[in-house]
Amino acid sequence: MLKILVTGATGNVGKEVIRLLQSYDCHICAAVRNPNSAKQILGSNIPSVSFDFTNPDTFANAFVQVNKLFLVRPPALANIRKQIAPVLNAAKLAGVEHIIFLSIQGAERNRFLPHSKIERYIEQLGIPATFLRASFFMQNFNTTHLQDIKTRGELLMPAGNGKTSFIDVRDVAAVAVRTLMEDGHQAKAYELTGGEALTYYEVADIFTSVLGKLVRYSPSLFKFVQQMHSSGLPMNFVLIMVGIYTTTRLGLAGNITSDVEQLLNRSPLNIRQYVENYQQFWL
Ligand SMILES: NC(=O)c1ccc[n+]([C@@H]2O[C@H](COP(=O)([O-])OP(=O)(O)OC[C@H]3O[C@@H](n4cnc5c(N)ncnc54)[C@H](OP(=O)(O)O)[C@@H]3O)[C@@H](O)[C@H]2O)c1
């Protein structure tokens, strides 16, 4: 039976990939740093294996009999040569037949992005792959930006008046599962976006209307850096976020594609549906 190793299994996308894979005839294995806490998140019926990108001793066991790898780069790991390449070497050695890599919109244009380096390294190794180049996740609003929205009714990001073609991670995961379980997706890259591109002013209006409380957008760069850093995020991570929001401000995050619709045979979820479905997070 097909064995699929899922990295980032306790994270936004991986968790949903595991949930969806359960209705298929395949052997799922969650590659996790802490199998006990993973059980609490994923349920005790999901097989898991100890795996840490930063600990090569965990690789060989994790890749035993694995046919396909769902690869998520943990956001904190930016040194691709040291922290991701060794895992890919181990995958190659173990004979992994197909990698579905959660990449980012624009990876093909910006060679400095860690995702771009990973894509090129996978190609260099010659492992058949599918790159899922996703736009901004809607779920950033209930994770990274949760407290700002909940406690101050504020969307704080230095994105100016730029538009973003937000995607729901439930759609990213649905596409990932499709490309894992169906033939014909090797050597392909998909740009996964929502069906509309909105400014953060427009997003704030949707939050206000769904939650029934005022949510305002603040594009202040200074306040963003101060707030993110004082919430405990390391400065290099905050600066990466500033870089990402700068691309939005420059109008580079609004591209809309039909890839999700074509792969799922339905429209992508929209921001209003997302805020309605997740509203308990901010109330
Ligand atoms: N946010 C966006 O808008 C966006 C858009 C496009 C692409 N992306 C890309 O998507 C990826 C993040 O996906 P996500 O949001 O689903 O993940 P996430 O929720 O940030 O979770 C990160 C996952 O990585 C695991 N992890 C962290 N360090 C690890 C290590 N050393 N070894 C093994 N596992 C480790 C975590 O497991 P633990 O339970 O052990 O912590 C967790 O499962 C990033 O590469 C990001 O750039 C994000």
UniProtKB/TrEMBL annotation:
Keywords, in A-Z order: Oxidoreductase
A Pfam family this chain is assigned to: NmrA
InterPro entries registered for this protein in UniProt: Ergot_Alk_Oxidoreductase, NAD(P)-bd_dom_sf, NmrA-like
Alphabetical list of CDD domains matching this protein: TMR_SDR_a
EC number: 1.6.5.2
UniProt-listed PANTHER family: PRESTALK A DIFFERENTIATION PROTEIN A, PTHR43162
Residues passing through the membrane, by range: none
Protein name, UniProt field: SDR family oxidoreductase
GO MF term (any one): NAD(P)H dehydrogenase (quinone) activity
Domain NmrA-like per the UniProt entry, residue ranges: 3-242
Keyword Transmembrane helix: no
